[in-house]
Each structure stands twice: as structure tokens, then as C-alpha cells.
Design brief:
The chain is an alpha+beta fold and 373 residues long. 41% of the residues lie in helices and 14% in strands. Strands 1-2-3-7-6-5-4 form a 7-stranded mixed sheet. It starts with a helix and ends in a 19-residue tail after the last helix.
Amino acid sequence: MTDAMTDAMTGAVTGAATSQVTGQVTGQVTGQVTGQVTGQVTGKVTGRVTGAATSTRERRWRPVASLDVALTLSPHRHGGGDPIWRRTPDGAIWRTSRTPDGPGTLRITAAAGEVLGQAWGPGAEWLLDTLPSLLGADDDVSAFADTLARAAASGDARTARTVALVGELASRHPGLRVGRTLRVFEALVPAVLEQKVVGREAWRAWRWLLRKYGEAAPGPAPEGMIVIPPPEVWCRIPSWEWHRAGAEAVRARTIINAGSHAAKLEATVTSPAGGFAEADRLLRALPGIGVWTSAEVRQRSHGDPDAPSVGDFHLSGLVGYALTGQKVDDAAMLELLEPFRGQRHRVTWLIALSGRRPPSRGPRMPVRDYRSF
């Protein structure tokens, strides 16, 4: 691993920082609150109220290394027309979330190395406070560089070739970060809907359920954006509505049961060491949630760089073909990824972005429609 490569891999934001919060209310009362915050990022949050119905808050944050905002946020989009994710022609990315403080809308743009976050709704302050985490400020990319260096020094010829390939793939995407939303149930619902079905089938059910039971996004969000309903609403959705959405009873029961345990799941984001192990344990203790679903959730909610999606229909074939020229099964994939333990999800993401794919043979999985059953 060269010094230049190590520098490219290192994107963690370090050092003491200052965050200033300034709120201005136009009217009879004007106040200002200023707080000193120490941490890994430098940002400025401003809030302005322009009328009784519109409240906009902003934060400017400058990461210390290159950051590809669109790529880092891409895992949180679930198909075309996702009601909680939108990219507008001006390049802005919009997200909605049901935060601990309530629903919120977040607009993210980046220019000249600076990220601007704008937020609306009761959850606006929370969304701005956690903006750096969403964009990977907590992602220790230096650990990835260390992993590559250790693997390269193993003395194994095959491992050395694999490390060289992974390092080259990483150099193509120096701005990739594994961010975390800190919202477990929001990641769990679409992951369960995506179990054992093709993406279009799952995304159709996701859109239908959000439009039926979600609420309109606060602020000037693009038309059609929706905030995911809270867990208690998911628990009350009747069986015939799941059927209309195209989700069969097994996935419906899994989501309903998880909704009753949502508080415990959300608490794992503040557990030691990122809460990865605790989240995995609690998730897989729930009926209907296995290795694949747990990994898909932790990748997004916790930013777990070592959560490969074992059991994915395509992933083992992609990894095997990229690293050996042949498709492999899950067990062989894990063996190939073992030198990268601690960073296996990051490595599989880089491989998926590489374009190295085995030749397509055989028919595609059909898109089923449970509504016609």
C-alpha cells in the first residue's frame, strides 16, 4: 500500500471542531443561541422562520477529504419513484425521515468541497445534527487502508492479487463513504419487502404502502415525497391492504412483529462499537429476519462496513467473478472476503460498482403480483 493510496483511503474527519447554531425569528421576538460542540466535523446551522407555516434550517459542513454525496446516499434509494428519496434536476438530493423528534425533510447539495443541508419539519434539527453521520463522517476509512495493508503483507499470492484489484477499485471511488441514517426501522421495512423477490416487485409494494399510510413531507419537498409512517401504524395495517400492496403474509408478519420491537432496535445505534453486533443479534432474533436482512439493515442504519449481504441472489456470483473469474457460492465468497474482514461490505460495494459481471445466462426471475393470487 503506497502513501498515496493510504491518503486516498483516509476520509475520517478528525480533530476538534466547532458547530454554531443560530436561530432568528422575525416578529416581535428575536433571539440567538450559540453553543460550542466538540467532535469530528465543522458545521454551521442556521434557522430562519419566514412565516407561520414555513421554517427552514440550514447547516454547512465541510468534510476534510473528498466526498461523493450521491454515491454515499445511493443505498438509501429503493427503486425509481421512491417516495422518500428524490434527486432533482439541480443536483440536490432530497430525503425524508421519521426522526426521534418527528417527521422531517432534508435537502442536500454540495459545491466547492462544502455540503449544504436544508431541513424542514419537527425533525429538522435532528436531521441537520446527524447530517455528517449520514454522509460518512463516522466511517473510519483509515481502517480500510490498514486492512488492505495487512492483507497485502500476508505473503499469499492469491490474496496479493485480490488486494491489488480491490485497491484499484477503491482508487476509482475515493469519495465513497459508508454512512448511517441512525434509523433502524426505516431501513428494516424495505429490506423485508425485498426478501426473495425481484427489486421491482418489492419497490412497488414499498411505494403503495407509503402512499397509503405515510404523510406528506414537510417543507417545499418535491411533489409526491412522503414520510414513512411510525412503527405503530405498520402494526395496524390489515391483511387485505398488505395483499393489495403485493406483499404476502410472511413479509407482512415480519414487519408487524419488528414494529412491536422497534424501540429496542433503535437503541442499538447508540450501543458501543457502533452497535453492529447488538443490532445483528436483536434483528436475527426476530422471526423472518436472517443474515441477509440483518446485513441490509445494518449497512444503512448503522453504517456497518463489515456486513456483506450473504444470501443475495447476485452478490456471490459478482464477487467470485471479479476476484477469480468464476461464479462462486456464499461460502466461497466469504472465503475470498476473509482477508478483508472488518471491511467486507465496503469491498462488495466496490466490486458491484466495478462493472465486472459474469455473462448473463438463463431467464430472469419473474416479477410476481400477489394481488392476482
